[in-house]
């Protein structure tokens, strides 16, 4: 694994070709949220010799991208879901020569799996009918009498007031309506509704709902049926974004689990949490549990309290004296230092308010509880370091989304008028902000990645912190360009002569930063498997020997895990521009 270098001149020269795409008619960005559909997209391939690359791919810039599997998923809106559901019902109805209602009941029973329905049906039709509740003929003989007695309310009513499922058990319409409405209001279980006769297993299909349920309950039933097509389907899931009604159909084995919905929300198909590359789902679960309130309460208790030797309840020391008294009903008095009975303290322990017992135990190395508390304190400090930076990047990402929305809704048209340009020439600005949002997400999860790196793997930890620091520095450069440097062109009184140069620089920064983050993600997902001491020493050697980096990166005061003494290596995105020149 090598860390390539790209000069600023090369970046600007390469980005000029990208700039032409923004002006041409062939460049299409606003395609319904598909910007990140293929593992961050394919833009910036010309810069694949930048950053982390495999040695054997240096002469073939597109090799690494071409090896990535194409993501196989389809975002479905409500109309698409209905159409697919109707198509499946029609397919089963045609192949098995069944009514639409019977086909619906069958598919619902087999979780909308058409192939499984066909296999089971042709394997043993009679068994399937019995288990599902599809009767070919009524199981009870109904007389030709003009009146019947309802089996629920026992009222004697005219024949026209009765209805029955495929089993033939007659019940009055009023009782049927009450039975159906109660089931629908209880939730999706109404989709598995059976005949009210206790011993009967006949299914109650959508036809009975349409015939007997009020309009409100019909609407609820239809929604339950529609949602079951996604929720019972192993290849489909709802988008977890608040308020989004879209679903995603995923081709199992399609490779990357990152999904981008039409609402622009990105999430992981496997765990439905927001997209979290380069961290795997198991690490995300552990990290989110660590972040939970209960988990941090435990950390705080370990850090700030000791347990009563008698009742084992945690006690916080809120005054200076070592004489502790547990709260009633325990009321046990003990020494805070050695956790022994206070009655044993006095001259023998070095004085009534002294405890040489504790000091002696310390010298013998027997104070295990104190060591555990110290370890818990160190663990808490390490967690705080990584969590603060994780949360900070999340906040920055949310702010970048707000800035992007404000740019699109307020500033883009103004910029067009002031700089006398077209919207197509300003797509580089939107793309830059989208890249900032995505990079903030990736950078955020690198802190969870770093937290769980084994502390004994010093070389890998040092190399990871270096790459993370370079990524953050490059992202800050792009963020500053899109936020601060753009402002003067928005607030200008008229066209500025260097606006085209700014667009070229912004395009280059976006492309190079994008490529760096793509390579960083792939390297971390591979576990930095190519890291060795020699490679790491080449990267870290310029650092000041007087200020070695700690495994958790807490020695410095700079961004992320980087200290102020960190050098600017040639391979980082921040070398593409120097605003001081």
Summarize the entry for a quick read.
Residues 146-359, 150-194 form the RING-type domain. The protein is built from 17 helices and 15 strands.
Please describe the topology of this protein.
Blueprint: E1 2-3, H1 8-23, E2 52-53, H2 63-67, E3 73-76, H3 78-96, H4 100-109, H5 114-123, H6 125-132, E4 147-149, E5 156-158, E6 162-163, E7 171-172, H7 173-186, H8 206-212, H9 215-231, E8 236-238, E9 247-250, E10 258-260, E11 266-268, H10 281-291, H11 293-304, E12 305-307, E13 314-316, E14 323-325, E15 333-335, H12 356-364, H13 368-419, H14 427-451, H15 458-490, H16 499-525, H17 533-540
Helix pairs in contact: 1-16, 3-4, 3-5, 5-6, 11-13, 13-14, 14-15, 14-16, 15-16, 15-17
Describe it for me?
It is a single chain. The protein has 581 residues and is mainly alpha-helical. The chain has a domain at 286-359 and 378-530: Up-down Bundle (Four Helix Bundle (Hemerythrin (Met), subunit A)), CATH 1.20.120.1750. Helix content is 49%, strand content 7%. It contains 17 helices and 15 strands. The chain has helices at 8-23, 63-67, 78-96, 100-109, 114-123, 125-132, 173-186, 206-212, 215-231, 281-291, 293-304, 356-364, 368-419, 427-451, 458-490, 499-525, 533-540; strands at residues 2-3, 52-53, 73-76, 147-149, 156-158, 162-163, 171-172, 236-238, 247-250, 258-260, 266-268, 305-307, 314-316, 323-325, 333-335. The strands form seven sheets. A three-stranded antiparallel sheet has the order 3-9-8. A two-stranded antiparallel ribbon has the order 1-2. A two-stranded antiparallel ribbon has the order 4-5. A hairpin with a 7-residue loop joins strand 6 (162-163) and strand 7. Helix 13 (368-419) packs antiparallel against helix 14 and helix 15 (458-490) packs antiparallel against helix 16. The longest helix has 52 residues, at 368-419. The radius of gyration is 34 Å and the shape is flat.
């Amino acid at each position: 694994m090598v860390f390539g270098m790209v000069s600023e001149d090369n970046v600007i020269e390469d980005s000029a070709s990208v700039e032409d795409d923004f002006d041409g008619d062939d460049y299409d960005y606003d395609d319904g949220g598909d910007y990140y559909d293929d593992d961050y997209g394919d833009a910036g391939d010309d810069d694949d010799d930048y950053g982390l690359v495999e040695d054997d791919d240096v002469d073939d810039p597109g090799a690494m991208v071409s090896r990535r599997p194409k993501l196989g998923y389809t975002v479905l809106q409500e109309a698409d879901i209905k159409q697919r559901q109707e198509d499946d019902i029609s397919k089963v109805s045609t192949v098995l020569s069944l009514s639409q209602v019977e086909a619906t009941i069958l598919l619902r029973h087999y979780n909308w799996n058409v192939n499984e329905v066909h296999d089971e049906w042709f394997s043993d039709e009679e068994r399937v009918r019995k288990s599902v509740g599809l009767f070919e003929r009524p199981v009870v003989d109904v007389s030709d009498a003009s009146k019947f007695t309802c089996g629920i309310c026992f009222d004697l009513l005219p024949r026209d007031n009765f209805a029955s499922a495929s089993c033939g058990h007659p019940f009055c319409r009023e009782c049927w309506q009450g039975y159906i409405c109660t089931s629908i209001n209880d939730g999706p279980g109404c989709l598995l509704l059976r005949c009210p006769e206790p011993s009967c297993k006949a299914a109650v299909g959508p036809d009975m709902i349409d015939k007997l349920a009020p309009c409100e309950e019909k609407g609820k039933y239809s929604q339950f049926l529609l949602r079951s097509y996604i929720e019972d389907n192993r290849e489909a899931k709802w988008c977890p974004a608040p308020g989004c009604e879209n679903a995603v159909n995923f081709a199992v084995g399609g490779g990357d689990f990152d999904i981008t919905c039409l609402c622009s929300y990105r999430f992981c198909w496997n765990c439905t949490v927001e997209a979290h590359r380069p961290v795997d789902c198991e690490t995300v679960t552990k990290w989110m549990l660590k972040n939970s309130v209960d988990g941090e309460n435990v950390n705080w208790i370990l850090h700030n309290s000791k347990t009563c030797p008698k009742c084992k309840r945690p006690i916080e020391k809120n005054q200076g004296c070592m004489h502790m008294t547990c709260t009633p009903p325990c009321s046990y008095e003990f020494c805070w230092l050695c956790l022994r009975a206070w009655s044993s303290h006095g001259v023998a322990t070095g004085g009534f308010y002294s405890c040489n017992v504790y000091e002696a135990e310390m010298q013998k190395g027997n104070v295990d509880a104190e060591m555990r508390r110290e370890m818990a304190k160190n663990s808490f400090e390490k967690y705080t370091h990584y969590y603060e930076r994780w949360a900070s990047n999340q906040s920055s990402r949310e702010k970048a989304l707000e800035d992007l929305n404000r740019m699109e809704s307020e500033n883009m048209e103004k910029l067009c008028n002031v700089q006398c340009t077209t919207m197509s020439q300003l797509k580089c600005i939107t793309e830059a902000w989208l890249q900032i949002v995505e990079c903030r997400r990736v950078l955020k999860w690198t802190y969870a990645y770093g937290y769980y790196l084994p502390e004994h793997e010093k070389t890998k930890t040092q190399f990871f912190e270096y790459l993370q620091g370079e990524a953050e520095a490059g992202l800050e450069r792009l963020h500053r360009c899109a936020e601060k440097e753009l402002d003067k062109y928005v607030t200008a009184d008229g066209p500025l002569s260097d606006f085209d140069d700014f667009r070229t620089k912004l395009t280059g920064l976006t492309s190079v930063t994008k490529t760096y983050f793509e390579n960083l993600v792939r390297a971390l997902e591979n576990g930095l498997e190519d890291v060795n001491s020699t490679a790491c020493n080449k990267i870290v050697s310029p650092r000041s020997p007087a200020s070695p980096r700690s495994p958790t990166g807490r020695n410095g005061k700079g961004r992320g895990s980087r200290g102020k003494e960190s050098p600017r290596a040639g391979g980082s995105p921040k070398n593409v521009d120097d605003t001081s020149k």
